[in-house]
Amino acid sequence: MAAPWSPFAATVTSFLFIRSRSGLAQSRVVWKAAVTKQRTVAGTQLLRLLHSTSPTQKKNVATSGRNEYTVAFIKKQIEEFNIGKRHLANMMGEDPETFSQEDIDRAIAYLFPSGLFEKRARPIMKHPDDIFPKQRAIQWGEDGRPFHFLFYTGKQSYYSLMHDVYGMILNLEKHSDLLRAKDLLSQKNKEDLIGSRWLIKEELEEMLVEKLSDQDHMRFIQLLERLLTLPCGSTEEEYIQKFRRTIPVQSKKKLIEPLQYDEHGMAFSSGEGKRKTAKANVMVYEHGSGRIKVNGIDYLLYFPVTQDREQLMFPFHFLDRLGKHDMDCTVSGGGRSAQAGAIRLATANALCSFVTENEVEWMRQEYSPLSI
Amino acid sequence: MALVPALVPLLRAGTLSKLHWLDFLGKASPWTSQPSLRMYGSVPAPGIFQQEDDNLQDKILSEPLKHSDFFNIRELFSLQTLFDARVHLGHKKGCRHRFMEPYIFGTRLEQDIIDLDQTVKHLQLALNFTAHVAYRKGIILFVSRNRQFTHLIEKLAVDCGEYAHVRYFKGGLLTNAPVQFGPGVRLPDLMIFFHTLNNVFETHVAVRDAAKMNIPTVGIVDTNCNPCLISYPIPGNDDSPDSIKLFCQLFGMTIKRAKAKRKQMEFLYSLQSKQTSQETPPSSSQAQLS
């Protein structure tokens, strides 16, 4: 096996020797058993010797897509966006200084009307930060040393967060030990945590700009819970609040409007209702004979179909007040069935003022299409 | 291609004067060589200053290699300090790994006692090697999978300006690094294992991966560990907090010492070169250099 190689070997030695003599005096190409990569010098025919290519030297084309959104590129996009915004404002005849994102959206919808159903496929003009996903900058300096001490773990932000929180826990434990020795330990109050929740996994991922697994997220929340059991100072409280989000308070109770009185002294109440694209506004008078007017027209003439009239009657029927109230309604949008449904909902809402709270609850539970 | 590695020593022998071992062992660094690496086109005339820089760099890098204990590692610890930190305590006889038998002094009530004379020698070699790597601005990665000492080791890494990996070790971290981190990533130049075993008492995957990637390793091997594939094993106890704290202190001190020494050498040699360029006899600086 050696014999066929030797002439080749000789040529290799010779031109490599020449090459190394010829001008690398000031350069520092190092020959090493594991790592070599020859670059072809223009004009000379050199064999490309790849011994055992170290993965750190090989250019992986698959990952070159990662460098798409460089900082310079994003900057350029932002400049173009700002200039384009001003042009658009001029086109629409508006002031470029006070041209907001809503104005841009309206202008684009006007200039490029699109009938596409998928809203995300329609033409948009937004700030590049909203369009291009957040990318991580290169994590190491010129000499190749990474900036973060946990770079080699893969999830540096997450693990450094865990490290910091654990450090806080250790400090607090030491502190609480000192306090306990002097019998100065105070009880924790849990009131700060009511009405807020921990971050969910997606929010944490967004915060750290890193992909996490469910277990990672669970571990993090467990660590924070452990931190909470210890007596925290103000800095720790502030730190914890960064990882809590307030839950929007949902008012479950319906606001029951009090009865209004018109010029004749008649009590009435109004209600609003929607069904599909139909909107209805209704005024129900306390004393009446069951006369209903829709958009100024008697309901018998406005709704020729019996089914629609039954829909109008239903709330009164439910409360056994069929002939007792007069009603004036205005309705717009939708088809006949939708309009009937909208008026029905509006009536139910209006009748809540005439009726006890228990009956309101009963209406809500018994018949959910009334949707109070 | 089996002959090609054999060719390389020939090449090295022939062109030794032109070859420069870079700061960290073996790994060709495009970063330090990029400014002067000729890729295409003709050769630019070598500048005088570049040559001087090279000479300076040569001297800085070759000076420590002329001494056996340039960083004075011997004074950092003694057998007594190792004994006080309980480094000699091994596991029970039943847990003993066959390859650790040479390092075991004996057993006492079925507990293995590690031979501290050997430990001293191995530790000196390992610390000396670490110091040289740190002097040459290599990347040092501390690895462990023992959860009791996670925080301690991460703090050590922050303290001496190096890196730590004490978390779940993802499969292709070293072997598939350009895909995971991005092209052009630099791998560690030394890996120091405080615990060679992971949580299921198997050898840490990083030992094998470092060997695959030609990364030298230093590792504290207990009596139940496999010392194969570790370049500089240190037989010692890896379970007591005292012994791990001692090892952390020792590694921290050597790395800081080596980095300080590097700064000092750079300063001294740059002073010397300034003095020679101004044509004054460099008498005082020469005396300091030895």
TrEMBL record, chain A:
Signal peptide (UniProt feature, chain positions): none
**Gene3D superfamilies, alphabetized:** 3.30.230.10
Q: Pfam family of this protein, just one?
A: Ribosomal_S9
This protein's record includes keyword Cell cycle:
no
Q: Does this entry carry the keyword Ribonucleoprotein?
A: yes
Q: Which SUPFAM superfamilies match?
A: Ribosomal protein S5 domain 2-like (SSF54211)
Q: Which domain of life is it from?
A: Eukaryota
Its GO CC terms are: intracellular organelle lumen; mitochondrial inner membrane; ribonucleoprotein complex; ribosome
Location of this chain's protein in the cell: Mitochondrion
GO-annotated biological processes = translation
Per the record, the major location class is mitochondrion
GO molecular function annotations of the record? structural constituent of ribosome
Keywords tagged on the record: Mitochondrion, Ribonucleoprotein, Ribosomal protein, Transit peptide
Record's family?
A: Belongs to the universal ribosomal protein uS9 family.
What protein name does the entry list? Small ribosomal subunit protein uS9m
Provenance organism: Monodelphis domestica
Q: What is the lineage of its organism?
A: Eukaryota, Metazoa, Chordata, Craniata, Vertebrata
Gene field: MRPS9
TrEMBL record, chain B:
Top-level taxon: Eukaryota
Localisation per UniProt entry: Mitochondrion
Q: Which intervals of the chain are annotated as region Disordered?
A: 271-290
InterPro entries given in the database record? Ribosomal_uS2 (IPR001865), Ribosomal_uS2_bac/mit/plastid (IPR005706), Ribosomal_uS2_CS (IPR018130), Ribosomal_uS2_flav_dom_sf (IPR023591)
Q: Does the keyword Mitochondrion apply?
A: yes
Recorded GO terms, molecular function?
structural constituent of ribosome
The alphabetized list of GO BP terms reads: translation
Q: Where is the composition biased (Low complexity)?
A: 272-290
Q: Which UniProt keywords apply?
A: Mitochondrion, Ribonucleoprotein, Ribosomal protein
**What PROSITE patterns does the database record attribute to this sequence?**
RIBOSOMAL_S2_1
- Provide the Gene Ontology terms for cellular component: mitochondrial inner membrane; mitochondrial small ribosomal subunit
**Main function:** Required for mitoribosome formation and stability, and mitochondrial translation.
Give the family from UniProt.
Belongs to the universal ribosomal protein uS2 family.
Q: Which HAMAP family match?
A: Ribosomal_uS2_B (MF_00291_B)
The molecule here is called: Small ribosomal subunit protein uS2m
Gene assigned in the entry: MRPS2
